[in-house]
Predict the 3D structure of the following.
Amino acid sequence: MFTCTGYAAETATAPLAPFTFQRRDPGPTDVVIEILYCGVCHSDIHTVRNEWGGTLYPSLPGHEIVGKVTAVGADVTKFAVGDVAAVGCMVDSCGTCAACREGLEQYCEPGFVGTYNGRDDAAVGGHTFGGYSSHIVVTQDFVLKVPKNLDLAAAAPLLCAGITTYSPLRHWKAGPGKKVGIVGLGGLGHMGVKLAHAMGAHVVLFTTSKSKVADGKRLGADEVVLSTDPEQMKAHAESFDLIVDAVAAPHDINAYLGLVKREGTLVQVGAPDKPLAVDVFSVIWRRRNFAGSLIGGIAETQEMLDFCGEHGITSDIEMIPIDKINEAYERMLKSDVKYRFVIDMASLKKAA
């Protein structure tokens, strides 16, 4: 074991604060990463505040991790000391179930091991601690390579926001000749716009904010629709091959299902803390699909990173020191960020 520092919450109502804990020493296939940057995901807030239930405390979040390899186990072949490495939402899975054998570790049947709030028999506290910390130890099969041309801080959110939107776009074959809608221009949505545009789709952004119209077009949207305007919504009725809904708050999903063409798909990637009410007639009358999607497997995540390297895609970020994390949470809840906070982990030494 070796000592690490980070920021964690002791209860659902406590602020994140400096925290000292133990990481395991690297085993034969482990990679030790000194964390340079960690993105701040809305899932971090949901977990820290126990909004989804099941949070294990102390809760130390962070699953958009980019850093430098400082040590490797004797059997590691994929990384060497000094390499840049990245870690996303998973740090392990069973490796033997049907999903894992197909490279879909995110759907591991016993359940993948989350980068934070997951089971961890080696941890003193019995559960995993994430990227709001100085170091992380991960088996090499769950560590990823970052293309050299990408800014490392701006690449960090690709490990969740990037793959969360890339995976459904890829699965439902977004590309030339396809009309793709992205609902919401936040951390997930702005990546969805960039990626769908790079794939060659005709991209339509849906937003409730007039102030985001110009930004949506800057990011790659061919059209921007104010979802609060019934006439603008009506103009797109039954015309979409695919809509990716990135909104993490309760909203009327049926308004968007009505925009999907026959046999098209609306896929939910935003995770509201309350159920969405689907009118069955929204799907029955046109044999529409209402689907969900959860990040991507390790191979697909590496594919996404390589795609972003080829197209020069990173997240639009605002860098913060770690002692501003509680303020950042409050700002995120007000959508006061364009479009992802990233923690400069160099600030941890001073703050902790």
